[in-house]
Amino acid sequence: MTINNIGSAARNWLALACAGLTSIAATAQETAINAASAATGAAVAVSEENPYGLSALWAQGDFVAKTTLLILVVMSMASWYVIFTKLVEQSKLNKQAAAARSNFWEADTVEIGKDKLAAGSAFRYIAEKGLDGASKHTGLLGAVDFNEWVTMSLQRAINNVQSRMQDGLAVLATVGSTAPFVGLFGTVWGIYHALVKIGMSGQASIDKVAGPVGESLIMTAIGLAVAVPAVLGYNWLVRRNKAVMEEVNAFGSDLHAVLLGQAKK
């Protein structure tokens, strides 16, 4: 093989290599362009607003529909506020019950035990009312049996604690029982206006009916979404309240026995 033949073969090989690289580059560029086009199309699809979503329901709704939706939002906010605040309150009462078990009953007298409890504690409040009732058993009240008088004083204090623990639960019960009907009212009102618009347009195709009616049905779903947490929260808080009240009643019963024992000395 001569030098000329070798040079010719090398040039042919280089030409083929360059052609292959050019083809690969063109294929890669085409793939990149297709991927960019697909990504752009997906971004455009995502950015497009759903014409039958909540935004459309608010934009196309009249005064009654918007008011109904706002009422459901307020009911939801109120129910969640009550749930969180009652959970915090019940947690505080559980800590107060633990403090009463560990501090109050270790004291020499009820007065000393009361001072060991934190200010604002429900158990300190009951102890104060019990001591107050025992000290005021004079005059006309002296005609009342001491046992009965102390029992009445402690029971009033326990009832006040229980009443305070039940504050807000009526809100959850009201929301849980009425929110589905408020949402249903919004649905009925929305369907009525949707049918009126369809009748005025003179077109009853599926695309003209599905959108407005679907928007109206969202109101029922919102009503259920508001009611379900309220009902579950109500039942949960009531069960937790019963557990806390067992601690309160037990403390009141033990305190009653201690006060009677001190009076006999």
Automatic annotation (TrEMBL):
Provide the protein's localization: Cell inner membrane; Membrane
Q: Name one GO cellular component term.
A: plasma membrane
Sequence intervals crossing the membrane: 67-84, 169-192, 217-237
Q: A GO biological process this protein is involved in? A: protein import
Alphabetical list of InterPro entries matching this protein:
ExbB/TolQ_transport, MotA_ExbB_proton_chnl
Q: Which Pfam families match?
A: MotA_ExbB
Family per record: Belongs to the exbB/tolQ family.
**Protein name, entry field:** Biopolymer transport protein ExbB
Species of the source: Leptothrix cholodnii (strain ATCC 51168 / LMG 8142 / SP-6) (Leptothrix discophora (strain SP-6))
Which lineage is the organism of this entry classified under, starting from the top rank?
Bacteria, Pseudomonadati, Pseudomonadota, Betaproteobacteria, Burkholderiales
